[in-house]
Amino acid sequence: MKSEQYVPQRYVPGDYAREHIRITPTRLADGRRFFYLDDDPEYVSGRRTRRLDDPRPLTDRFAPHQDQEGRTVPFQPPQMRRDPLTGDWIPMATARMNRPITAGPQATAKGNPLAARKPGDPYQDGEIPDVDYNVAVFENRFPSMMQVPNTQAADQPSLVDGNPLWPVREANGRCEVVCFDPDEHALPADLPVSRLRTVVEAWAFRTAEISTMEGIEQIFPFENHGQEIGVSLAHPHGQIYCYPFIAPRLEQELRQCADYRERTGGNLLADILKAELDSGRRVVFRNATWVAYVPAAARWPLEVHVAPIRDGILSLDQLNDQERWDLAVMYSTLLKRGNAFFDKGDGRGMDLPYIAAWHQAPLHDPRREDYRLNLQFFSFRRAVDKIKYLAGSESGMAAWVSDTTPERIADRFRQLGPLDLENGENQ
């Protein structure tokens, strides 16, 4: 099987990616898009190629299927309903109830669908066609949002129970998986910086390409790590959610940024970064193009924000080569120091559960120019043997109560390594 013709719509690789990363597209058996991102010189040069055909007997994902009563029914895309009290859109993704789980006591799958294919292994429902890979990106098999071809889109009611209080829309977004490494037992914190550089390129590549797709309003790359966070697949990977709306957290930030611009004429995120640098009290590490700091009003018992120094960067695809290398160094450092943050008494730290959330400017909202790219990294672990539960005040009223102070968090991070990091390799 030859690679299908794939013409990038917006993605333009920099000098490093052109020479050291090869992107090879294909499709999985049910029609989903799949991309290998190789940094192995044998594959970059074309001397070796990846397997492109998916041998699984999967039916087209948009094809009719049989329901529980054995009746053939048309494909039904995920729906979302609008909460009249908050204005939030809530996707309803019932297909996710059937997704495989390999982590924790509720594990349902004996094989890892994100691992490379293992010849002779009885489990052959993996998502990776080849027996090895570097980084892989593909559409989620069990998405909470999904882009459906117009010709096959099912007719959807516009209202729940015919009542205008509850509008309904197709959850016409997109969900992708980013596998960081083929080793299913690896930890993201232990990956070499060169592999994380390929992950950064994957984020930039998908941000650029997805931004051209109709109906997408926000692109949200993120990583969940650890059983306590709720990770269902034990493999170093992240996801990219592409919303057909602006998510509530970003909407709240955009309002604040727009209000600040109107009152002061400044960019709120740029001024926050400047204020943190001027204070220096909560800056935990930095390099030539990025700064990591604990925000002055941190919510979580462990929280770090990472921001580019250069103004005008709204999304990951706008980073230059040096910034992408320096980001790989920053991300590696952040994960390593996060794992060392809590001392069990043996000096070895722990595998920290965390969420790493990329906040990018929305695609079409006029307030996008008031925004600025930033990473928000946090964990609800508050001690070696304690986690922060989001109970009445946080869950019921979204009124946060912190269990520590940002200065204490920053002090602990600064104990774990130098403030100034070496810059990333720029080949």
From TrEMBL:
<dbReference type="InterPro" id="IPR005850">
    <property type="entry name" value="GalP_Utransf_C"/>
</dbReference>
<keyword id="KW-0119">Carbohydrate metabolism</keyword>
<dbReference type="Pfam" id="PF02744">
    <property type="entry name" value="GalP_UDP_tr_C"/>
</dbReference>
<keyword id="KW-0808">Transferase</keyword>
<feature type="domain" description="Galactose-1-phosphate uridyl transferase C-terminal">
    <location>
        <begin position="254"/>
        <end position="366"/>
    </location>
</feature>
<dbReference type="GO" id="GO:0008270">
    <property type="term" value="F:zinc ion binding"/>
</dbReference>
<feature type="domain" description="Galactose-1-phosphate uridyl transferase N-terminal">
    <location>
        <begin position="78"/>
        <end position="245"/>
    </location>
</feature>
<keyword id="KW-0299">Galactose metabolism</keyword>
<dbReference type="GO" id="GO:0033499">
    <property type="term" value="P:galactose catabolic process via UDP-galactose, Leloir pathway"/>
</dbReference>
<dbReference type="InterPro" id="IPR036265">
    <property type="entry name" value="HIT-like_sf"/>
</dbReference>
<dbReference type="GO" id="GO:0008108">
    <property type="term" value="F:UDP-glucose:hexose-1-phosphate uridylyltransferase activity"/>
</dbReference>
<dbReference type="GO" id="GO:0005737">
    <property type="term" value="C:cytoplasm"/>
</dbReference>
<feature type="region of interest" description="Disordered">
    <location>
        <begin position="47"/>
        <end position="84"/>
    </location>
</feature>
<keyword id="KW-0548">Nucleotidyltransferase</keyword>
<feature type="active site" description="Tele-UMP-histidine intermediate">
    <location>
        <position position="237"/>
    </location>
</feature>
<keyword id="KW-0862">Zinc</keyword>
<feature type="compositionally biased region" description="Basic and acidic residues">
    <location>
        <begin position="51"/>
        <end position="70"/>
    </location>
</feature>
<feature type="region of interest" description="Disordered">
    <location>
        <begin position="103"/>
        <end position="125"/>
    </location>
</feature>
<dbReference type="InterPro" id="IPR005849">
    <property type="entry name" value="GalP_Utransf_N"/>
</dbReference>
<protein>
    <recommendedName>
        <fullName>Galactose-1-phosphate uridylyltransferase</fullName>
        <ecNumber>2.7.7.12</ecNumber>
    </recommendedName>
</protein>
<comment type="similarity">
    <text>Belongs to the galactose-1-phosphate uridylyltransferase type 1 family.</text>
</comment>
<keyword id="KW-0479">Metal-binding</keyword>
<dbReference type="Pfam" id="PF01087">
    <property type="entry name" value="GalP_UDP_transf"/>
</dbReference>
<dbReference type="InterPro" id="IPR001937">
    <property type="entry name" value="GalP_UDPtransf1"/>
</dbReference>
